[in-house]
Amino acid sequence: MATSIIRTVVPIIVGAIASALATVGFQLSDKGQELIGTVLGALIAIVYYVAARALEQKFPAAGALLGKPSRPVYFDKTPFDTDTAEEIEPDDTDDIPLDELPDADNPVDEDLEALAAAEVDNTPPAEGYRPRH
Predict the structure, then answer these.
(1) Other C-beta atoms within 10 Å of 20: how many?
(2) Most buried by CB count within 10 Å: which residue of 2, 28, 87, 128?
(3) pLDDT tens across 70-93, in order?
(4) Angle, vertex CA 102, rays to CA 97 and CA 105, nearest 5
(5) C-beta of residue 19 within 8 angstroms of C-beta of residue 37
(6) How far is 49 from 102, CA to CA, in rounded Å?
C-alpha cells in the first residue's frame, strides 16, 4: 500500500512545486493566483503522472520518477469460501463414471436410433407457415 501512496503523492508534489514556480512573477489578485496555481498544479500533476507511466511501460526503471521504481502489487485478502452455508459431502460411492459404463465406446444401434428419435420435433408447423428457403 505504501508504494501506491508514494506513487500518487509524488506527482501531486511535483505539480504543486511546478505551479508555484510557473506563477512566480505574475501580478494577479490573491484569488486569481490561487485559482491559476491550483488548476495549473493539477494539470501538471496529471501530465507528469501520465508521462512517467508511459515511460515506465518502456523503461521500468523510469518508475523512479513516481517515487518508487516498483509498481504496487494488489491482491484479494478475502478467503475463497466466504459463504456460511453448511458444506455437504456428496455420496458418490455408487456413481459410475460415464466413460466406464459397459459398451460406452460401442453403443448399440437401437440406442442411437432412440436418441435420434428423441431429438426430432414432430410438432406440425403453424397454419400459413411458409419456409423462406
Answers:
(1) 13
(2) 28
(3) 777 777 666 666 666 666 666 655
(4) 85
(5) yes
(6) 66
In the 8-state DSSP scheme, what is residue 100? G
CA–CA dist 133, 121 (Å, integer): 19
> Do 38 and 28 meet the contact criterion of CB atoms below 8 Å apart?
no
Indicate if the pLDDT at residue 104 is higher than 60: no
Q: Yes or no: say if 15 and 41 are a contact pair by the CB < 8 Å rule.
A: yes
Q: What is the mean pLDDT of residues 32-52?
A: 86
The mean pLDDT value of the chain amounts to 77
DSSP string computed for 39-55? HHHHHHHHHHHHHHHHH
For residue 103, give the C-alpha cell: 459398451
